Give the backbone structure.
Amino acid sequence: MSVPVLHDYWRSSASYRVRIGAGLKGVALETVSVDLRTDAHLSGALDALNPQRLVPVLECEEGALTQSLAILEYFDDLYPERPLLPGDPWARAQQRALAQIIACDVHPVCNLRVLRRLRSMGHDDAEVRSWMHTWMAAGFEALEARAGDAAFLGGDTAMLPDVVLVPQVYNARRFELDLTPYPRLVAIAERCEALPAFAQAAPREP
């Protein structure tokens, strides 16, 4: 397998991260669409690659790799010329911490399977939206306080936390979260979205 295969859903923010990272690193990918709306991830086709039945999954010569941050750091190790994380251990840890505010604390409680579970428990659309706004706002508030005056969360160039931020901003806009309390994050996201790797990775329905 010469070109890695990304099992991807166009609207998945975790898959979106991987597409951005691949673009920044110049990694060519073949994509296989897995439509979460039709429960294609539950059909059994992913079982051998990811027993969690989640996307993204990167299928490469070494095997199958799951979890978007693991995939991004794999890219970073494999293609170090355009780093997604700085070389200094403390700076790397700080950048990971920013990325994980979203990847660990916001995204897991706002993804599709959580929203479906909330609806199955009788919560209506307004309540589900309020749930999402609560956790998105908590994450954005923390990131806004730590954003500083640099052009990107990563500093002078877009790095791992920026790759994670932009898909969450996309979700926030989609679910109509008021972003006016987060002017630094909005400005950073807009700078990122103007970069080719981010623009080319943006969600587009097949």
Notes: The beta strands are 5-8, 30-33, 57-60, 63-66. The CA atoms of residues 102 and 191 lie 19 Å apart. The domain at 89-201 is CATH 1.20.1050.10 (Glutathione S-transferase Yfyf (Class Pi); Chain A, domain 2).
